[in-house]
Design a protein that fits this description.
Strands 1-2-3-4-5-6-7-8 form an 8-stranded antiparallel beta sheet. The protein has 8 helices and 8 strands; from the N terminus they run αββααβββααβαααββ. The protein is elongated and about 100 Å long. A hairpin with a 6-residue loop joins strand 3 and strand 4. It is of the alpha+beta class and 324 residues long. Helix 2 runs antiparallel to helix 3. Helices cover 30% and strands 32% of the residues. It has 2 domains: 252 residues, Urate Oxidase (Roll), CATH 3.10.270; 33 residues, no CATH class.
Length: 324
């Protein structure tokens, strides 16, 4: 056996710079830890099927002792590796990780934070045909521990289509003008002639502008919630907006998508209010923060609306985008 092997087997002491006296400016730090930890994780989809994905993890504790040189980052990583990657992500599993952070740094810290950025894949039904297709949603389970109090959050980004009501009204006006020009000299209207004319490019002489849009939702989960309601939250958002983007599309699906856009004309204000109304009655959500982003096709900038549930000491009315 080599000397190095003997040293490992006997767990001989190695230098630990973190335990040496600290020199220089002394102050506590809000957060210290690691970001962009790549870790395989398991999620549960709407059909209660276990799916695997890759998470980019942020793991932090605060540093309350101004005389401490620093934290033990390896302890954070090992907790993430040993706990997070071996079972389905649930509020209980997330709590177990941050509590491990806290215990491993109890002499120098009283707060811990864990965030997992994940692409959540799920098969979604096409609008009319029997097809299904994979859709990916950006999801972030977040849990924080501060002086013994736990807070579990979930954020999700849901893409959808938004058609401008003003543009639709202007398009209808042009179509009416075209109809008047085409038929105003006729004493009586020929049904077939009108029908055929409406099927031409001259008949539909203008179309409203629509754009891919994104709803960013962040919710505080009630402490009684025992699973991450990712699929359910996505369903609530898409059901409220009625114009979810599609994966597998045949002509019947595309036509239905056009119909849904025409019957759900939305400014960003309309979309935000729809989502607020949909989430306000969900008793599993203690609070929510909603930001809708309409990536304008008319303008080089976006139209944005933000709304919160408005509970006392809840989310602030903050227009900033959630970090990706």
């Amino acid at each position: 056996m080599s000397a190095n092997e003997a040293c490992i087997d006997n767990s001989c002491s190695l230098p630990d710079i973190a335990n040496e006296p600290h020199s220089g400016p002394n102050s506590p730090l809000n957060w210290v830890g690691m970001s962009e930890i790549e870790m395989p994780v398991f999620l549960m989809n709407g059909k209660q099927e276990r799916i695997q994905s890759v998470a980019r993890v942020q793991a932090y504790v605060n540093l309350t002792d101004p005389d401490s040189k620093g934290i033990h980052m390896s302890r954070l990583y090992l907790a993430v590796d040993e706990i997070l990657s071996n079972d389905v992500l649930t509020p209980a599993l997330l709590r177990k990780v941050v509590e491990s952070f806290a215990v491993s740094h109890q002499d120098i810290s009283d707060s811990a934070y864990l965030e997992c950025r994940v692409n959540f894949f799920e098969r979604r039904q096409s609008l009319k045909s029997d097809n299904t297709g994979w859709k990916s949603y950006k999801v972030r389970p977040i849990i924080s521990l501060h002086k013994g109090k736990l807070l579990t959050e979930l954020s999700v980004e849901v893409p959808y289509s938004s058609t401008c009501p003003c543009s639709a009204a202007l398009a209808r006006d042009l179509i009416q003008q075209g109809f008047r020009t085409q038929f105003e000299q006729q004493n009586s209207l020929d049904y077939k002639a009108v029908h055929d004319w409406l099927g031409t490019t001259a008949g539909i002489s203008a179309t409203p502008h629509s754009q891919r849009s994104v709803a960013q939702i962040r919710v505080k989960l009630n402490e009684k919630v025992d699973e991450l309601p990712i699929s359910r939250l996505i369903d609530q958002i898409e059901d409220a907006l009625q114009t979810p983007v599609q994966a597998a599309v045949k002509r019947a699906d595309e036509q239905e998508f056009a119909r849904l856009n025409a019957s759900n004309l939305m400014f960003c204000e309309d979309a935000a209010r729809r989502l607020q109304a949909a989430l306000a009655t969900d008793e599993t959500l203690d609070d929510f923060w909603i930001r809708v982003n309409h990536m304008e096709s008319l303008h080089p900038h976006n139209a944005v609306a933000v709304v919160v549930k408005g509970v006392k000491n809840g989310y602030r009315d903050d227009p900033r985008e959630l970090p990706h």
